[in-house]
Inverse folding.
């Protein structure tokens, strides 16, 4: 076995040496066959001829050898349809570790056929947790699943088993775009008895920046949830939306006074993503400059900085924070003024006064 160790240290063996190694795959000792496969796995490149010789080991009587063979294929960035079909066949293997290793091979492939994907989707119902997670990982690596496949995955959201619902949501979250019908099915899970499933459903919705008014209304209703973590997650969905109506923003304003610091900060994040706020909403932001939490004060100033234009009344309120006790807040207040296209002499004088004040800026 010392010889095997030496070969493993050389990731670019010659064809002659590789041919000699491949011949050893017929050895009667299954442990030795597995060790030889370990050498092949480390090779930077194997020819089609080499891989054909390895394929036969996918049907080896020893599960350790079958798993080691899959390791060789996992190291190859792009497999032929023939080889992929041989790997997919092992998803029915009686050994769970072999099935999991087969999914590991499929996960690194740049694209899979519709037939193969259908087989993998079925594994989201597997009784073994690790198989479900591995199958989910393969599907998550495919950012644009067909409508047919997505419909099959969405159907799993109605499964009784909470872990199946969780796996399905993990796949849906990875998709670039979901149709309104699929998103409506996800929205229904916002009332799921499983807290993790509800949070995962919000994660799916957060990845979709253009929710319909109907789906947004269902999300907005959850701003009244008792769980502060959940309220914060709902605000994350709203922040990701390309645009929100005044009605939606009015509902978020109430969260600016939430008892939880993180929820208030998340509510400010929603407003920060809106480039033009009404005077009414700006007034709610300005009020937060008096918050005891320095992070809330700073976040409120960041929202104001993002606004294209602020009134003199708003700017006057910000001036007071040039001398806030917290350095980050002071800097954020100045950045609000820096973002304004033009300033009156009054405000410029306030900025100039800071230049000689060592106690404020170092």
């Amino acid at each position: 076995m010392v010889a095997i160790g030496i070969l493993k240290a050389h990731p670019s063996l010659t064809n002659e040496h590789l041919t000699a190694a491949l011949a050893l795959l017929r050895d009667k000792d299954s442990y030795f066959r597995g060790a030889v496969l370990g050498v092949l796995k480390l090779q930077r490149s194997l020819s089609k001829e080499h891989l054909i010789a390895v394929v036969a080991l996918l049907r080896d009587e020893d599960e350790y050898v079958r798993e080691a063979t899959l390791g060789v294929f996992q190291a190859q960035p792009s497999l032929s349809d023939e080889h992929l079909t041989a790997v997919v066949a092992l998803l029915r293997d009686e050994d769970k570790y072999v099935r999991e290793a087969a999914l590991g091979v499929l996960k690194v492939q740049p694209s899979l056929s519709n037939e193969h994907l259908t087989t993998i989707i079925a594994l989201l119902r597997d009784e073994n947790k690790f198989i479900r997670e591995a199958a989910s990982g393969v599907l998550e690596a495919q950012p644009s699943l067909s409508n047919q496949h997505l419909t099959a995955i969405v159907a799993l959201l109605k499964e009784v088993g909470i872990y199946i619902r969780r796996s399905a949501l993990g796949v849906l979250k990875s998709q670039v775009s979901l149709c309104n019908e699929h998103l409506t099915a996800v929205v229904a899970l916002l009332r799921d008895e499983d807290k993790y499933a509800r949070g995962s459903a919000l994660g799916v919705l957060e990845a979709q920046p253009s929710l319909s008014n109907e789906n947004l209304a269902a999300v907005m209703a959850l701003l009244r949830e008792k769980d502060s973590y959940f309220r914060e997650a709902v605000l994350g969905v709203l922040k990701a939306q390309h645009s929100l109506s005044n009605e939606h923003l009015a509902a978020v304003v109430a969260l600016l006074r939430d008892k939880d610091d993180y929820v208030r900060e998340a509510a400010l994040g929603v407003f920060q993503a809106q480039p033009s706020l009404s005077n009414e909403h700006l007034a709610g932001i300005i009020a937060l400059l008096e918050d005891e939490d320095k992070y809330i004060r700073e976040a409120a100033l960041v929202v104001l900085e993002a606004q294209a234009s602020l009134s003199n009344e708003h700017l006057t309120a910000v001036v007071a924070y040039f001398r806030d006790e917290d350095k980050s807040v002071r800097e954020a207040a100045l950045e609000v003024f820096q973002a304004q296209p033009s300033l009156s002499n009054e405000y410029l004088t306030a900025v100039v006064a800071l230049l000689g004040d060592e106690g404020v800026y170092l």
About this structure: Residues 30-41 form the longest helix (12 residues). The mean pLDDT is 87. Residues 289 and 297 are 5 Å apart (CA to CA).
